[in-house]
Amino acid sequence: MEVENQLLGISLGSSNTSNDEKKMNAVYDKVRGLVTGNAVVVFTISGCCMCHVVKQLLFSLGVGPTVVELDREAAGPDVLGFLSRIAGEGQQNAVPAVFVGGKFVGGVETLMACHINGTLVPLLKDAGALWL
Predict the structure, then answer these.
(1) Where are the transmembrane segments (predicted)?
(2) Rounded to two decimals, what is the model's pTM?
């Protein structure tokens, strides 16, 4: 339940929820379902060069991530807002947003740092995204 620890830091409302809270609950459920059902999920926007870098890095390592292009999804703006909240105040961009093994890893900077310091491949293996 690693993803729930990452995502539950955001208040999702009570039994007396407003429409905005209901929408956020639906977005939370959508994101949670994607990241718990796939070894690697990358939320992107088509045409974003940093999103392209993340996808190419993962593909070059032999990983077939689930890619969600938010500008092509009906709920894309809501998911983007949700990812912004997960990324936190210090992050400039909400995408690319990478989840590995149900855990929010971060964006391009974090993924590249993990690759350079040698922790990315073991992380991907532990998540079942790589077998070698």
Answers:
(1) none
(2) 0.83
Q: Could you list the pLDDT tens digit for every one of the 132 residues in the chain?
A: 444 445 544 444 444 457 778 888 889 999 999 999 999 999 999 999 999 999 999 999 999 999 999 999 999 999 999 999 888 766 668 899 999 999 999 999 999 999 999 999 999 999 999 987
For residue 50, the tally of other CB atoms under 10 A from its CB is 17
**What are the structural domains of the chain?**
2-127 (3.40.30.10)
C-alpha distances out from residue 131 to 12, 99, 124, 125, Å: 36, 18, 9, 6
